[in-house]
Write a structure and sequence with these properties.
5-stranded mixed β-sheet; about 45% helix; about 250 residues; binds iron/sulfur cluster; PD-(D/E)XK nuclease superfamily protein; PDDEXK-like_dom_sf; 8 strands; alpha/beta; Lambda Exonuclease, Chain A; 3-stranded mixed β-sheet
Amino acid sequence: MDAPFDFNHREKPPSFADAVNACIDTALVAEQAERPQRDYLGGSRLGDICQRRLQYEYLKTPKDQGAGFSGKSLRIFALGHVLEDLAIAWLRKAGFDLRTRNRLGDQFGFSVVGGRVQGHADGVVVAAPNGMAVPALWECKSANAKNWREIAKHGVGKAKPVYAAQIALYQGYLGLTEAPAFFTAINKDTCEIWHELVPFDAALAQSASDKAVTILRACDAGELLPRHTADPDHFECRFCAWRERCWA
Ligand code: SF4
């Protein structure tokens, strides 16, 4: 007997939105692949919990299969840049003299250890209508509602140690240690804005700087630094782009 036709079995075609987004994401991923990878240790990353991961980043070690940035991640990063531009405009409208470029038109930044450690700051506040001390480093992040609430509840130092290390390091290397840094976080879901002043933490800056030296020395010596955990299912490892390589 012939098999009956199965008229109900059909592959669900992608929705119109899915099809368009697939085009966008393919373009974004291709564009990202063309961007040169940075060949220095980024100051914004030195607060990362895992030195080995920072080594992989610095050495441009290939990521695990399928672990590169997705189109969606790239869209999220791009949205963050737009929100940062908005925050700059809003603060300037409010009377803050917020500079994002130096007199030469370059982004405020530093380059140490022969250019092997670099950082670029979001801006410097040189005058403010609220009487806050200046000049102050300005750092801006956008976050989803859950992360933003953590920052607003506990402060950046406790909620986001990676950002706190970045702020301390940048204050130290840019000589902006007298006035507390001005940290802004935008809630991507609600558009609420959190601001706080972060006094310079010399010990944190020193430890981030020491970490950079440790990583560079290990890279030069061809040594792999220890993992930050003995548990491959640690939260940080589950989302690490080098997990398979690291635990192989
Ligand atoms: S998998 Fe875990 S231990 Fe290994 S590099 Fe990534 S974060 Fe570090």
